[in-house]
């Protein structure tokens, strides 16, 4: 039964995982063209950690509750909804915020069907990570058949999705991660090989793997600390796609001249800050071209990688696990 209150992840002031708690707040009501989703599960993203630290404000008009993706059942249809959604339908959603709560409102164009054969817990691992990887590879990076893609943080949520999508696009994925066990996991998902960034120079190893040609596309969530190695192993006319700054924002050195010399391009993208029209177009294309591959019998079988499932009440433990880089794939929160 829909009530006027709900539980949500909350923090009063920025800080470490210890500032997080559950709080009873008002249940949102769907506006024009929106659907109210009763949340079964929501996945954790690096953006949640940064927002909790006070370094990443939600976009204007978005909920200040954490959570960029969720799965559940349609609980209410707002005015002007045109379908095909009905009350009770299972769905998964891309969100600008608000997913780590018992209910969240979603523009109906950002809802996707749960792939056949997946649980709602598994479905919660798809929207943000897989749409991000799809956008970076297909829309921003323009990956072509036969090209080589270097994926940093290859065993995180976006990384595990990017490995599989790279194979779907008939390209060749390479990853950086650590330790060796994570590299083996990446290979099982389809990575050609992996480089332990803590023990070896991934740039030199990528050049060896490509017989000196370099990689055509780099998916980079690290940023500043990797710039020299990225440029070193980027092929002529390569595309360096930046979507995070985990390694800092400062660049000191001849970045521009090296880009120019290789005729390379540096492209940046943050999905959360895109407008609704762009996101709805992305969701539509992803739904039409990718979602069927999650279902049994697909020629290229995709699967969301779930690292660990925490009850919502253990939100602090979930954040600590991601902050320590212990996860392989997505950390999921299940709603009470």
Descriptive account of the structure:
The chain has 336 residues and is α/β, with parallel strands linked by helices. It has helices at 46-52, 120-123, 127-140, 157-168, 180-189, 202-209, 227-233, 255-261, 276-289, 315-323, and strands at residues 5-10, 21-26, 34-43, 69-77, 90-94, 103-107, 111-113, 148-151, 172-177, 193-196, 215-220, 234-242, 265-268, 306-311, 330-334. Strands 3, 4, 5, 6, 7, 14 and 15 form a seven-stranded mixed sheet that branches. A six-stranded parallel sheet has the order 10-9-8-11-12-13, sandwiched between helices. It has a two-stranded antiparallel sheet with strand order 1-2. Strand 12 (234-242), helix 8 (255-261) and strand 13 (265-268) form a beta-alpha-beta unit. The longest helix has 14 residues, at 127-140. It is globular. It starts with a strand and ends with a strand. Keywords: NADP, Oxidoreductase. It comes from Erinaceus europaeus (Western European hedgehog).
